[in-house]
Amino acid sequence: MNSNYMFLCGVMWCKFGQQEAGKELLRAAKSADPDMSALAWAMLAKGARRLSDLERQARTSPRTILEASLCG
């Protein structure tokens, strides 16, 4: 596993939420190589922040509010 591959996994995880990329990041986070582990943890954290931002947007979007009033 090299840092270029790990970076690409991070992009796929952060931008698209691809589960296989997230699994690769978790595997790299347990690596004995401290640089690889740090890169993987950073990408996992960035993906987690992005996910929480998207969830927050979904809760407050006009579509969500409209769906709640129509289906609610």
Polypeptide structure, described:
The protein has 72 residues and is mainly alpha-helical. The protein has helices at residues 3-16, 19-29, 34-60, 62-71. The chain has one domain. The protein is built from four helices and no strands. The longest helix is centred in the middle third of the chain and has 27 residues, at 34-60. It starts with a helix and ends with a helix.
How many individual β-strands? 0
Q: Output mean pLDDT.
A: 79
Unreliable parts: none
Q: Describe the biggest sheet?
A: none
Kindly report how far apart the N and C termini lie: 49 Å
**Any idea how many domains?**
1
Global shape = elongated
Helix share of residues?
A: over 70%
Helical stretch count? Answer: 4
Strand content: under 5%
**Secondary structure category:** mainly alpha
Radius of gyration: 16 Å
SSE run:
HHHH
Provide the fold topology:
Elements: H1 3-16, H2 19-29, H3 34-60, H4 62-71
Helix pairs in contact: 1-2, 1-3, 2-3
Give the gist of this structure.
With 72 residues, the chain is an all-alpha fold.
Key descriptive features of the protein:
72 residues, mainly alpha, 4 helices
